[in-house]
Write a structure and sequence with these properties.
The complex is a heterodimer of chains A (473) and B (486). With 473 residues, chain A is of the alpha+beta class. Helix content of chain A is 40%, strand content 19%. Chain A is elongated, with a radius of gyration of 30 Å. The model of chain A has no long low-confidence stretch (mean pLDDT 89). Chain B has 486 residues and is of the alpha/beta class. Chain B has an eleven-stranded mixed beta sheet with strand order 1-3-2-6-8-7-12-13-11-9-10, sandwiched between helices. Chain B has a two-stranded antiparallel ribbon with strand order 4-5. In chain B, helix 7 runs antiparallel to helix 16 and helix 9 crosses helix 12. Chain B is globular. Chain B starts with a helix and ends in an 18-residue tail after the last helix. The chains are: A alpha+beta (473), B alpha/beta (486). The interface between A and B is large, with 29 and 43 residues.
Amino acid sequence: MKYEVVMGLETHVELSTKTKIFCGCTTEFGGDPNTHCCPICIGLPGTMPKLNREVVKYAIMAGLALNCDISKISKMDRKNYVYPDLPKAYQISQYDRPLCERGHVDLSNGRRIGITRIHIEEDAGKLVHQRGKTLIDYNRGGVPLIEIVSEPDFRSVEEVVEYLEYLQLTMRYIGVSDCKMQEGSLRCDVNVSVRPVGSEDFGTRTEIKNMNSFTNISKAVKYEVQRQIDLIESGGKVVQETRRFDDSSGVTESMRGKEDAHDYRYFREPDLVTIFTDEERVDQIKKLIPELAHKKLERYIKNYGLSEIDAKLLVKYKRVADFFEESIKDLKSCRNCANLILSLIFSKFETEEQKEKFEIKVSPEAMNELLKLLEAGKIRNNVAKKTLEEMLESGKRATDFLSEEDLKGLSEQELKAVCVEAVRSNPNAARDYLDGKQKAVKSLIGFVMKKTRGKANAQLAEKFIIDIINSKN
Amino acid sequence: MISRIHGLLKARKISCLELVAKYLNKIENLNNPLNAYVNLTADFAIESAKNVDKKIASGEDFGLVCGVPMTLKDNISTKDLETTCCSRMLKGYRPIYDASVWERLRLCGSVLLGKANMDEFAMGSSCETSCFGGAKNPHNHDYVAGGSSGGVASAVGAGIAAFGLGSDTGGSIRQPASFCGLVGLKPTYGAVSRHGLVAYASSLDQIGPITVGARDAAIVYDEIAFKDEQDSTCVGKKCSAVAHLDDEVCGLKIGIASQYFESVDSDVERLINDALEVYRRMGIEIVEVSLPSIAHALPVYYIIACAEASSNLGRYDGIRYGPRAWEYEDIHEMICKTRSQGFGEEVKRRILLGTYVLSSGYYDAYYKKAQLLRGSIIEGFDRAFEKCDAILAPTVPTTAFKNGAATLDPVKTYQTDVCTVPVNIAGLPAVSVPCGFDSKGLPVGMQLIGPKFSEARLLCLAYHFERLTERCFFKHVDGGVDLDEI
């Protein structure tokens, strides 16, 4: 029998607000254990949460970017469960009145993934196992999260990965999260079930947890789908349960069954007041949302005539895209700029994180200046490259070290003279050429380039050199 | 009381240090039988008194509560001073921050004599669920001071604290005030900051004063009711209560709801009728109002309070503070044992009840229904206040219980909260005022209930009642500090 996979995602995104969701502690990652804590985030008796308005704003931004309706009236609830990393024995979250509802993401294959809801909540601390002892670090406790819950609309692993990449890119674009899977600022649980192709009913689902990279998600889902199909094929039944993915063995294993599922005993958080969001506020927040990556991509391809590959690489990092757009102001073509960024500048970075940060010594204005020289033909491509190298190194502007001579360009007359000199001082090369060794011309062009400090037009030089050699004979 | 102490300090009739020494001396004599204080903060009090004396000597202006020796219920967090909620679970716990109300009073110069006894985590009506044993009624030591703020009422009633702050979740300020012949004010939900109050039921809890007389209650209320950023539900007071004490009351309307008198002792009912006469004499019109929805108040209260308590008390696991069980195999057993050993019977009962009513499958039948009824109780009061300015009702159907009686039958004891809980459910202010004594000589209290943020009016009505009855319902108890001797 042929099977269809049905999946739904619960994605946690850590918001990058400066302070925690209910107190003034920093949200910075790391730090010595229990140094980013206060009576509120460790839940000392008598403390009360204070909702950080920035968190609401960020969550609404996320909601708007994912085409959600923003709830006019929303509230916080308590999700009760006991675990040592949860100091109040309840997580303040949202149950039946989430901040955002009914959004969607469109995939490249034309399918639309529904977003059921986005709600805000606090993160828990971390257990640290050390030399047979268990210690607790509450630094992460109270860091704001949004949970993005999708509809069970996914039909393939590829769709899941594309969706997650889209979320990651979008959250980074609107600046609400750095979405680093390794640091846990993007986490995802996948609900997986299979059903015979054509069936309307959903199969029994399992929830997979503990995947910390896109690769692992891919592996875990593939494993789980096959496991479920094998189970059904061999006459077994899938049981509803939570499974964890084991990175080292690449398999999913049962964590807890349905009967052990938590009864969270949700009820309204009495220490916090209702969150009212009027249209005016939503409009204000809308203005804070920049052009999103997929729109940019469309524009780069359509208006700038960039290839899809190049455009994708440029929009992948918002800072790069911003730099690109500022650098090409008043230019006829943006090709040179795209090429220089993608080849030269990108080669300076080793990690994605560095590209994300895009810390370079060249300002967009300086880049623009350089590109204008190039476009005006005052310098040639190779000079531009060399110059940019030096700019990246020293932080100086092109005009700081390009001499008058450099910028003057080279007349045909002058070029011809240099070519004559090249042929005269390399009689062997000329002979070789006449003997049929086409390549010999290259060394002569090299001579010309060196002599003119790269200002020469190589094609023109080649033509001149060949003419000179031929005319001599 | 507070004004008199202020006058004595101002006239330099006595220094604050001498006054505090007098109180500490009397506490030493009386606290053994009364068990009002569970933790004396004598050194801290002496230090504070010295600072007050310096301030007075410098000629600086000082407020009414400055230099006044007082007490706090042991669920109000005091920085560096043990705050136990009278539970084994919090023995040795010293908060690292001050509750907002205490921070304010401390900055005003109030002198904390010690932390007062209470029912464990404020769960109880007799103070006897305290892990330190109950506090005694200063009028007769065979009877309880009431609960849960029993220690505060016992201390203020006995004259070993000039005033105190309690907390009221279902009557825990008003009931002990009534039992001990004192004024107890439960402010509007949101008038006084709860920040630093160890939570029992967050949507019902309010801090308020227990004092000798309405003027003192007004003075303390004015000081502790302010908007506090630390408590999102707190908006502060609408107006000063002291400023309105002398307002004209002629022409106001007091409502009487028969539902409040259904199971009330005859002594109590008689004394409340007498009080109505007093109000009539002031030119106040007495009108009938109906509050049928309060018939459900008791179950609604116990469902909501226990539900919230089960969540609020989940954090006591012995991991971060408080005592931890000794022997355990794993973290689960450690938490189980710690909680089994740390909590008393009544607290366990309410955690279990609360967990049950929130559980899936029972939520709709209990918690959800209780929330709906909460709405109808609020509406009931709203309608009643269209017809009157305040409602007069008994605070408790009875006078103080005999020691030990309340713990015998928990459900019967729950039923004695019938008159106090509706106010908490609706978030309204209410003040209990002494209105006489029963045949055993035990104090009887009546409560004035008003619309939200009507504390000033309620205290004004209470104050007028005291004046017209020449404060004859405040009975002096021997043994405490006597300001007349100064």
